[in-house]
Each structure stands twice: as structure tokens, then as C-alpha cells.
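Notes from the 1:1 (GR / supervisor)

We went over the backlog. Supervisor wanted to see one worked example end to end before approving the batch request, so GR pasted a single chain during the call. The sequence is below; no edits were made to it. Supervisor asked that the structure be written out right there so they could see what the output format looks like.
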Amino acid sequence: MKASSAMLGIYIHIPFCAGKCPYCGFNSRPADASVIECYLAALHEEIVLRSQADVAADTVYFGGGTPTILPASRLADILRGVLTRFRAVVGAEVTVEANPESLTREALAELREAGFNRLSIGAQSFDDDVLAALGRRHDATRAIEAVGDARATGWSNISLDLIFGVPGQSPGQWKATLKRAISLRPEHISTYCLTVEPETEFERRKQAGEIEGVGEDAELEMYVAARLMLCAAGYEHYEISNFALPGKRCRHNEKYWRGGEYFGLGAGAHSRAAGVRWANAAQAQEYIAMLAQGTLPVTYAERLCARRALEEELILALRTGEGVCLRELGLRCGRDAVSEYRNQVRELAAAGLAVAEGSRVILTDRGLALANEVAIRVMA
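Structure output shown during the call:
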């Protein structure tokens, strides 16, 4: 598929990790050296097949899994392949996800030298009891050290991932984690409410009655605490789960929320370009086998009709701090969005979930906290 956008986002999926965390629903698997080598060869082949040197890429994002479970030299090789096959603009945002225990100063320095300029660290918590409940392989001290190591090796754009609503976690523990995160002054912080994903160890434990959630009231208290504490510390709440210092939003993720175009490379990666959305084979072995035959590893594709494209972009844009301008959205999608969603906007406003300023709709704090309910009402 040919990209039509002047600025393309590139996502690279590295599905390997040291071990599967009990809550993780992502497409990841424990590392196996023989599979890794075959996977990287297949990934290189997909990069070659997908290459579009006449299309500029302004964001590149390595996610997983844990990309930094690979040697920094291998990640550098992949990045060079991407930048050779796609025309990266000057100042492109190049992100790599990492877990604290997978980082060394040597690797961090090598990644910076290779061209990575944004580091997303999966700290998840600065409380050892919470980290143990999540099955993480690092402790709070190592998470703090990882940020220090990154600063010492020249990283000036660091993001921390944090999780709240963990079974057994108290609002006080969450606020202490937020306080510690703020003291480290990362440029970006993502705060995610834990959801029990299907086919995870947490789902088995929940069904067996071994764990239970903290409850909606506690989750809401933690969500509000994150918003209040981070905004007071100078972070902009620009998307439901994301906070950034001025000028440090994640430009790659904004493509997803604003209907931008992106290529996803790797097992299970998703793409959207020229009105078409597609997904790669999720299983590494199937992905490898398809590319070994010289075939693009696509197992699902659909052309988005105007209404479907409008609906998806509307729901995603409502998650952002700026909300959505229905008039502008309608012009992009070729529909009268103002008329089509007039009743839903009225209902959201009446319920205190949104405010309408002309044709712009912005969720209230309550609406952001109940984003799933908002999405259901919009689709209705």
C-alpha cells in the first residue's frame, strides 16, 4: 500500500521479552535466540518490501515486547535499515521502549549514537510491593537508576510508563509513585489504569478468585490524583493517559489519535494509509514463514468507508485535550459530522461528559475518566 501522507509514522514491533508479565496482553513472547535471528531477517525483508523512499517519515517508534532485550547494535541495524528505505526528515522523533533491567549505560550511549532520541521506560511503579504484584523484574531503585543512566548518556527526552489500579495498590502508594516520578522530571509520563486482559495470568487469577480489582472509586481517585499532581507540576494533560512538559508530546502517538498515516512493521503490527487499515500476522513463526516466501505478512485488511473513518477519528480525538472540531473532521471525511453527531453531543453535554464550543467538542474531566462510556454513546 502506498502512503498518501506527506509525513508517515513508522512502528517497529519487537515481540521478545525476558518473560511474560502476568498482566500483559500485548503481542510478546519470551526470547528465544533461534527465533530472534529468523525474526530479524524477516523484519529486514518486510522493511525492504515496504520501502517508500519518496515518502518522508517524521516519527519512528520501536515497541514490544522489550526492544532493548536485543543488543543495541541490532536495534541500530534495524534503524539504519528503516532510515535507508524511508526518507526521515531532519528532527524526526525516534523512540525506543525499554525496561529498567534491560538498560546499561553502554547500550544507552550506543542507541543515542545510532540516532534514537526518545526513550520510553516501563517503570510502572516506584513501589516494590506494587512491582512484585505486577510480576516485574526490576525494583524501584533500578527504575530510578535507569533514568539517571539515561541522563548521564545524553538522553534529553525521556518518558515513564506508570500503572495504577493494581490489585492491592492503595491511592497513597499511587500518589507516592507519582511524587517520585515528578522528582525525576521526565519530559513525558504515561499513566495507565490496569485492565485484566483476556488470556493473561491475571485473568486466570481473577476467575479463580485469587485477586480482585481496587474498585471503581479507588481507580477514579487515582486517575484524578494523576491529573492534579502532574498538571500542578507543569505537565500538560494532552490525552487521557498522557502528560508532557511543553513541546514534549509523543508525536508518534498523536498520529494514531489524529487520523495520521503509519506503517507497522513486525509481527502483529497494524498500519493505516490511503484509507486502508491492515494488520500483520501476529504469531512470529507465521510472520517469518510468509516473508521467507517473499510475501507481505498481511492477514487482515479493510478499506475504511467515510462513516467508519469519521467515527474512529472522532472517538480517538475526543481522548485528547483539544477534543475534536466536528466541522473540520467532517471536511476531512466527506460527511456532515456536525449534523450526524448533534444528538450525541447534546447527550454528552447533558450528562456532564463534554462541553461544546461551536463545532468543537471537548470532554470534561468526568468525561475523560469515563472515556469508554463516551465511546459507547458516540457509536450509538
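Supervisor's comment: The radius of gyration is 21 Å.
Batch request approved.
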